[in-house]
Specification:
6-stranded antiparallel beta sheet; Four Helix Bundle (Hemerythrin (Met), subunit A); alpha+beta; 8 helices; 2 domains
Length: 278
């Protein structure tokens, strides 16, 4: 609901302020709940905890934006109590605009936490706890009877410092691409010569395809041994829906780390977008 659809009339302004504060608070509660599920899942395996890169930062941003939205909504209530004139009306509209912006950002961080949840659960054997967490994350990303932004609109949120963390991030990215359909993720070297370009595309059905463009000087023989197939000047790999997202994740990490000599995920530039309509 856009604040532009409302004027500064007192009853409408209070109603909209309450709605926006409720949106932000719902996002905060949902994100905090998913964060608790992530922490429970990542420690559930009989091994080192599953990395959850960026989780604490996302939770902090979520809480900050929720407080900003609620504070701006409270400002609307206070302004309305001062009377109704042009100056107050402009201040009310400004406070509503700020509240709406903060609430939208809170919802963005909620979706990013849901994405981390899906990346974490992908590393685990399916059980009731995993299923519950995944259902919660999916309903955040694709709420029933509501439109929600897609990954291509939200952009990439990446905090990986090492490849174990990148595994969680890629699994979450792929899960969200599959939920959205008709999107792509590109991976390129950052601050280096353009020795390779990797594109991960999910079609309208949910099938996942990888395409790797290499510098002609690169030896692709070892990559074929990893699981890539030659297709003209490219190396490709494909998975049909439904798929196990850790399979393409493991292929990508092995390719980047072991064959393309990318020592750290910090050397990678990630971008997402919508695929062009046929």
């Amino acid at each position: 609901m856009s604040v532009d659809d409302y004027d500064a009339e007192a009853g409408n302004a209070v109603y909209v302020a309450n709605l926006v504060a409720a949106r932000a608070t719902r996002a905060w509660l949902t994100g905090r709940g998913l964060g608790a599920e992530i922490d429970e899942l990542r420690w559930s395996a009989d091994a080192d905890p599953i990395p959850a890169p960026g989780l604490q930062q996302a939770l902090e941003h979520l809480g900050d934006r929720c407080m900003q939205a609620c504070a701006s909504a409270d400002t609307v209530h206070a302004l309305i109590g001062q009377g109704h004139d042009d100056e107050t009306g402009r201040a009310v509209v400004g406070a509503l605009t700020e509240a709406d912006r903060a609430a939208s950002e809170a919802e963005l961080w909620m979706r990013r936490i849901a994405q981390i949840c899906l990346g974490t659960s992908a590393a685990l054997t399916w059980n009731d706890a995993v299923a519950r967490a995944e259902r919660g994350a999916v309903i955040v990303l694709k709420p029933m009877d509501e439109e929600s932004p897609e990954l291509a609109d939200d952009g990439v949120f990446s905090f990986s410092q090492h490849y174990a963390e990148l595994g969680t991030e890629l699994a979450g990215l792929f899960s969200r691409l599959i939920i959205d359909h008709a999107c792509f993720l590109s991976i390129e070297p950052r601050g280096r010569s353009n020795t390779f370009g990797l594109t991960c595309t999910v079609d309208e059905i949910g099938n996942l395809g990888l395409a790797l463009d290499l510098d002609p000087s690169e030896n692709s023989g070892r990559l074929v041994d990893l699981g890539w197939e030659r297709d003209g000047d490219q190396l490709v790999a494909q998975w049909e829906d439904p798929l196990v997202v850790m399979e393409p994740v493991q292929l990508i990490i092995a390719t980047l780390r072991d064959e393309l000599s990318v020592s750290s995920p910090k050397q990678l530039a990630l971008a997402v977008g919508h695929t062009e309509a046929p």
